[in-house]
Amino acid sequence: QVQLVESGGALVQPGGSLTLSCVGSGFTFSRYFMSWYRQAPGMEREFVATIDSTGGTKNVAESVKGRFTISRDNAKNTLYLQMNNLKPEDTAVYYCYARIGHDSWGQGTQVTVSS
Description:
This protein has strands at 3-7, 11-12, 18-25, 34-39, 46-51, 58-60, 68-73, 78-83, 92-99, 103-105, 109-113. By secondary structure, the protein is mainly β.
């Protein structure tokens, strides 16, 4: 059974940093592209970043470029999202995603950026 479990969300002040983690199980983690998405209240879910199976190719949304970094540790079956210089508009539930035969999503982790 495929499982994606996010953690690391918190309340943080503007300009602060946070690292999210997503642990995958029930599939061969190292074979799949992995991605982060987010969904703010009243908004559609949007793409944040993606990384290929080896970690050699990464893409991030323009809105977070230069502030967010996606990475992975295949030995630990873990995907990361390092978020720096956080802004109030980054407030959202952040989801881990992979297409493993079908769309697979984690339960999400809440990030709130507020003073």
